[in-house]
Amino acid sequence: MKVRIHVSLKPGVLDPQGRAVHHALEGLGFSGVEDVRVGRLIELEVADDTSDETLDAMCSGLLANMVIENYRIEKAAPAAAREPA
Amino acid sequence: MSFRAAYVTFPGSNCDRDMAMALEKVSGVAPTRIWHGDSELPDRLDLIALPGGFSYGDYLRSGAMAAHSPIMRAVKEAAGRGVPVLGVCNGFQVLTEAGLLPGALMRNAGQTFICRTVPLRVENSQSLYTAGYEAGQVIRIPVAHHDGNYFADEDTLDRLEGEGRVAFRYVDTCNGSRRDIAGVLNEAGNVLGMMPHPERAIEEDHGGTDGRALFESAVRGLVGA
Lengths: 85, 225
Known about the structure:
The structure holds two protein chains of two kinds.
Chain A: E1 2-9, H1 16-27, E2 40-45, H2 52-63, E3 69-75
Antiparallel strand pairs in A: 1-2, 1-3
Chain B: E1 5-9, H1 16-27, E2 32-35, E3 47-50, H2 70-80, E4 85-88, H3 90-97, E5 104-106, E6 114-122, E7 138-145, E8 149-151, H4 154-162, E9 166-170, E10 181-185, E11 191-194, H5 212-223
Parallel strand pairs in B: 1-2, 1-3, 3-4, 4-11
Antiparallel strand pairs in B: 5-8, 6-7, 6-9, 9-10, 10-11
C-alpha cells in the first residue's frame, strides 16, 4: 500500500522559507500570490494491513515534529482488480 | 575525586573533539567517547555532552534522526535519573527532538547560516551550568548554525520564563528565536540545551574565554573543587 504523508507547519508558526519563496515568485512577476508555506511530502510503501494507529505513531514519533508541524495521511486508492493476463 | 564525563559522537558530529577538549582542559580528565550506535553508557557518569555538528546530515529535521539513535535511549534514561546532560548546537536540536527539552529549533528567520561571536545575557545564574556567571552578565560566545530559531508556544515560553529555565538570551536578535532565547533548562535543571558554542570560547587563542565558566561551574557543582 502506498501512503503519502503531508507534513506542514502549524498555522501561526512563521515559515521563513515560504516567505522567501513568496518573495521570489513576486520577483518573477507572479502577482496575486497571497501566501506560501513550504511543507514536506513523504511517500511510504507499507504492508497492506498497516493500521491507522501505526501510521499515526510513525508520524507523531518521527516523521513530523508535533511542536511545529501537522501531518495528513493520504492512502493511495486500492489498486483495481487486475485483468487476467 | 575525578570527573567522569562522556560525549556522544553521531555520524556527522563535528564539534565532538572541541567538546572533549573543553571538558578535559577544565576538569583535567579526558571524557569517554561514546558512539551513537552504542546502547549503554559508562557507569556513574557526572555529565553527558551532546556536541554540535550535522548528525545524519540533518536528514528529515536537524537532530531528528539522532534523537532516535540507540544511545539516546540510554541518555534519556540517565537524564531521567538526574544525570546532567549538556547539548550544544546540534546537541540542543537533538535534545528537543528527543523530548528532553521543550520547543523546537527551526530554520533561522533570515534563512542564512549565522557564524559569528554574539553577546549573550546570562538569565539564570543559579543552575549547575551557569553558577559561575552573574545574573544579567553579558558574555561573548560564538554561534554557527542554520537551524537555531527557537520556537515554543506562548504558554510554554511563559512557563520557561516563570520557572527561570531560560539560561541564556541573545542580547541582539540573532536568528528569530522566540523571546531571543539561546539556551533552556529542563524542569529539574540537569539538562541544558543551547545554540551558542561555549566549548569554542575556552582559551585566549579562541578569541575569548567566556565559555570556560560554564564548564567550570558544572565540574565544581558535580565533584566539588
